[in-house]
Specification:
Low-confidence stretches: none
Mean pLDDT: 97
CATH superfamily of the largest domain: Cupredoxins -  blue copper proteins
Largest sheet: 6 strands, mixed
CATH class of the largest domain: Mainly Beta
Radius of gyration: 20 Å
CATH architecture of the largest domain: Sandwich
Oligomer: single chain
Strand content: 35-45%
Order of helices and strands: EEEEEEEHEEEHEEEEEEEEEHE
Number of domains: 2
CATH topology of the largest domain: Immunoglobulin-like
Helix content: under 10%
Number of helices: 3
Distance between the termini: 69 Å
Bound molecules: copper (II) ion
Structural class: mainly beta
Length: 321
């Protein structure tokens, strides 16, 4: 294994609370979005570095939020010091390649295309150059939410997470700089499967869990970049009260879902309530990815115990008469 490299970005994991505000207007608007593509060294976990590819130096890339009927002027700039071409394909775009050809940029170039968001839902975006699996694996994916005209019901919290797998020349946890491993990717045998691009980023071992209060509600936006694995997205110690499979707003949600599949190139929107204090662990229930490959995120509910719902240490009860 090579020595670790000095990092270009201290934190590659997107902040799950960095979610654009809900849209409260009743008419369409034109929105300008600018993304910069980057190739940067960061830590997968302490002592393990990797050269990520990103939109705006974070994994997943920034969450975008528009309203059905909005027009988006989308500008992609490929940083001059990069070594590869990049572009963007948004599944919210009706048009060739989801914008990929129109946004193809060599290092130092900028391109702009325009699209109208004609259907609501949560959609993946990703780099779509010929080696797109390599680029997505390395971090080039994210989520765009197209709100329906009537908006979404209000909740106490919104969180944004993404899942992808890294294919490297090292073993998980092996110190040093890990190079990309094309053969491992072709075989779909990842070294790491990660939430927000880092091992345990959204846990007490990383930047800390997200926190909510007992009684709160939350909506989770979840993007599966892949490039190859389907996530079996499950909240340990809770249930998804509602799930919009594939982020498909417009259909009725599934209710009381334990584990929802999120295919590569897809998203889910799921809601939950926190009725007792303690952690809710967000996992891929293909659990070797949690136990051995780094995937985990935690939402910690703080507040009063609710022993009627859950009592970890009940008083012995006498047999009823
Ligand atoms: Cu790319």
């Amino acid at each position: 294994m090579n020595d670790t490299q000095s990092v270009d970005v201290d934190r590659i994991a997107a902040d799950p609370t960095d979610v654009p505000d809900p849209i409260d207007r009743s008419s369409p608007r034109t929105i300008d979005v600018e993304f910069e593509t980057t190739e940067v060294v960061a830590e997968v976990e302490p002592g393990v570095t990797y050269t990520y590819m990103t939109f705006d130096n974070q994994v997943p890339g920034p969450m975008l939020r528009v309203r059905k009927g909005d027009t988006v002027n989308f500008t992609v700039t490929n940083r001059e010091e990069n070594s590869m071409p990049h572009n963007i394909d948004l599944h919210a775009v009706r048009g060739p390649g989801g914008g990929a050809e129109a946004s193809m940029v060599a290092p130092g170039e900028t391109a702009t295309f325009r699209f109208k968001a004609t259907y609501p839902g949560a959609f993946v975006y990703h780099c779509a150059v010929p080696n797109l699996d390599y680029h997505i694996s390395s971090g080039m994916f994210g989520l765009i939410l197209v709100e329906p005209e009537e908006g979404l019901p209000s909740v106490d919290h919104e969180f944004y997470f993404g899942q992808n797998e890294l294919y490297t020349t090292g073993e998980a946890g092996e110190e040093g700089h890990h190079d990309f491993d094309m053969e491992a990717m072709a075989a779909e045998e990842p070294t790491y499967v990660l939430m927000n691009g880092e091992k345990g980023a959204i846990t007490g071992d990383g930047y800390g869990p997200e926190t909510v209060s007992v009684g709160d509600t939350a909506r989770v936006f979840f993007a599966s970049g892949g490039p190859n694995l389907t996530s079996s997205f499950h909240p340990i110690g809770s249930v998804w009260e509602e799930v919009w499979p594939q982020g498909g707003i417009g259909s009725r949600p599934h209710e009381n879902v334990q584990t929802t599949p999120v295919m590569p190139g897809s998203c889910t929107i799921a809601t939950m309530r926190f009725e007792v204090p303690g952690p809710v662990k967000l996992v891929d229930h293909a659990l070797s990815r949690v136990a051995r490959k780094g995937f985990m995120g935690v939402i910690e509910a703080e507040g009063e115990a609710n022993p009627e719902i859950f009592d970890p240490d009940p008083e012995p009860q006498s047999a009823s008469a």
